[in-house]
Specification:
- The structure is a single chain.
- This protein is of the alpha+beta class and 191 residues long.
- It folds into 2 domains: 2-98, Double Stranded RNA Binding Domain (2-Layer Sandwich), CATH 3.30.160; 105-189, Sigma 54 modulation/S30EA ribosomal protein, C-terminal domain (SHC Adaptor Protein), CATH 3.30.505.50.
- Helices cover 30% and strands 38% of the residues.
- It has 4 helices and 9 strands.
- The strands form 2 sheets. Strands 5-6-7-8-9 form a 5-stranded mixed sheet, with helices on one face.
- β6 (133-144), α4 (146-156) and β7 form a beta-alpha-beta unit.
- The radius of gyration is 20 Å and the shape is globular.
- GO terms for molecular function: ribosomal small subunit binding.
- Keywords: Cytoplasm, Translation regulation.
- Residues 130-183 form the Sigma 54 modulation/S30EA ribosomal protein C-terminal domain.
- This is Ribosome hibernation promoting factor.
């Protein structure tokens, strides 16, 4: 597994890197058979340290966790415990999807844009209805089943996931609703 351990305006020493590799390796070994990459970023917000971890699995799934504490090691332990809990909760499903999938998850490319917000006065008419593009980025869209998309949404803690449905090849969306349930948009099923 490839590790990327860094700090935002924090010096991450050799001892902390060794500790992170040992602990994350142990967590991942328990639940995932072939992880590919682990990214851990330490930062500081006011008096607290923040640890954000992302693990990319060979099944195409991504798990994310975040921990806060007054000390850097405690922040990492909080993050590690959350990651452990997520992977434990989905262990059976991760392994089942991995065993039934004959080929790795394919990712298609797409453009992703960041648009400027329109914070204008209500009485003033906008000059143009065209939004201002602030940034353009490349994003990857996985080709997975609806069940895998819901699991990815849960593991990554995201609010929304766009994916290509393996069943029919169309673009679908799963999202977390305000009532706590998961919504699924499949334009192909519209009448």
């Amino acid at each position: 597994m490839r590790y990327q351990i860094s700090g935002k305006q924090i010096d991450v020493g050799e001892a902390l890197q060794t500790h992170v590799k040992a602990e994350m390796g142990e967590v991942v070994e328990k639940y995932a058979q072939r992880p590919t990459e682990c990214v851990v970023v330490f930062s500081r917000v006011a008096h607290e340290f923040v640890c954000e971890a992302t693990i990319h699995l060979s099944t195409g799934l991504t798990a994310q966790a975040k921990g806060h504490a007054a000390e850097v090691y405690a922040a990492f332990e909080s993050c590690r415990e959350k990651m452990d809990k997520q992977l434990r909760r989905y262990k059976r499903r991760i392994r089942n999807h991995h065993n039934h999938r004959a080929t790795p998850v394919e990712f298609g490319g797409a453009s992703s844009y960041i648009l400027a917000s329109s914070e204008e006065v209500e009485d003033v008419e906008p000059e143009s209805l065209q939004p201002i593009v602030i940034a353009e980025m490349e994003t990857k869209i996985p080709s997975i089943t609806v069940g895998e998309a819901v699991m990815q949404l849960e593991l990554a803690g995201q609010r929304m996931l766009v994916f290509r449905n393996e069943g029919h090849g169309g673009v679908n969306v799963v999202y977390r609703r305000d009532d706590g349930n998961i919504g699924w948009i499949d334009p192909r099923n519209s009448k």
